[in-house]
Amino acid sequence: MTDGLPALSFSISSLTLIGMLAVITYTAYGMSVMPLNLIKGTRSVAYERLENTEDIDEVEHQIENLKSKCKDGRPLSSKDRRNLQELEGKLQVLRRRGRHLDIAERNCCSKVGIALRPVKVSLHYEIGSCSQM
């Protein structure tokens, strides 16, 4: 009955060791990247929205230029049709991204995250000062 106890103990100890190494590696990476993320910051939703609006305007202008080529009744060349389809697809993606940005801007989590940023920075400072002791 005790023949399997050392094998079971060894397997549990091995799995515990592997798990502990994984936790240590994960925590070490997080602690080393956290200051970089605080320095780099995040892009604001308003800035991304402005960038998205500019991209939409640019793509719409390119679509209008391609469509103006066929106003006199001539059909578009295959290259222009392909470019027009790609631009229309890109316009759909940009409009979808704009809707996602609208949702993100109204999201309460982003507003709370902005409000709690000083707490995040101060916690990082306290953790960093404790680890230097």
Automatic annotation (TrEMBL):
Coiled-coil positions: 49-97
Bilayer-spanning residue ranges: 6-29
Sorted UniProt keywords: Coiled coil, Membrane, Transmembrane, Transmembrane helix
Domain of life the protein comes from: Eukaryota
Transmembrane recorded as keyword: yes
PANTHER family linked: LYSOSOMAL COBALAMIN TRANSPORT ESCORT PROTEIN LMBD1, LYSOSOMAL COBALAMIN TRANSPORTER-RELATED
Protein name as catalogued: Lysosomal cobalamin transporter
Protein encoded by which gene: LMBRD1_1
